[in-house]
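Contributing: when you submit paired examples, paste them exactly as shown. First protein:
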Amino acid sequence: MGKKDCLFQIADSQQGYFTSFQAERCGYARSHFQRQLLSGEWIKEQRGIYRLARYPVTDRPELVVWGLWSRSKKGEIQGVWSHETALDVYELSDVMPAKMHMTVPISFRKRISIPPLLVLHYATLHEKEIRAQQGYFITTPLRTLIDVIEEGVLSHDLLLQALREALQKGLVSRRDIEATGKDSPIRGLLNELTI
């Protein structure tokens, strides 16, 4: 497979975006990046993150770009969209977050300052609590609901609305909620809910 095909395959799985690390792995020399930018083949999104210019623009590109921003030194995406941002992606409740919420590992470190539009939550997520989307990761609907309930920032009405909509859309089930344990705050919310 040629370097152009290799890069397209990676970018296609990430809504047209790729990192300098990924481009180098496909065989592009860093010294030739400027040539790709000048030719119009690539567009620089932010430091170390690019987009194939001819790739169609997607609905929520910021989810991919900031997910790639969270990558480790090894190039692995560490950030998982969570809390109010995940509620918004799943279209649960009328929450309109002013900032984007991402959960990162407790050991997460960046040499640059955290952008003001991001709110980072530090936690250890288990594989079963994460869903892979096209180019980014997001907490499961159940984990999302538990996170926003425990965070205690949203109004009680919005929490009830989010739980009701998650149940109606089939994103969570009563059985899933009951399996969280009798002391789980989501079980208390479920008891209040009448569908």
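Second protein:
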Amino acid sequence: MTPSSWNSLEIAKLLVGALTPLMLALFGIYIHRITKRFEHLQWRSQKLIDKRLEIYDDLAPSFNDLLCYFTYVGSWRDLEPPRIVSMKRELDKKIHLAAPLFSEEFFKACTRFQQLCFETYTGWGHDALLRTQFERRQEALGNRWDKKWESCFSRDVSNPNTIRDAYRSLMEVFARDIGVHEAFVVPPTGLLPRHLR
């Protein structure tokens, strides 16, 4: 062997010896970045789910109150018409604020449910009207009924079964968007009261 080839071989060994730790360090940095990115995505997903659950806790009771009121089940007698009208304004604000955190399907389901419950755009400065009949409510409330409440009701009445179906669709989309149940189906709520007017 010649001295120059020996020096080339030694130089190659030194380069390989120096590059190996450098390559391992670069690979470690790459893996660290991927791990951090994955952790950040996980953290962001968890925060999104937490926020969606918080929104669910805020919206779901109001949606359920509307279902009860418009299908004459549960606590519908405890809810006065002006309160239901004001609930619509509150829900509108909350739904529009939450829209970026949910799917377009969720927003459409909310809109559909509310359209069945309320007649909107009834005149400049006028509140939405309740798309249900008032006579049965008047009978149920008796002395507590205020004659002024009759102006809160629309003549364009929605079918309670349609409202119930829209509620079920809304809750199913809600559950999917939260990620709690991918294939959640809201169980039937039973029969509606007979002889609805």
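If you have annotations for the second protein, write them as plain sentences, like these:
The longest helix spans residues 3-71.
Residues 3-178 form one domain.
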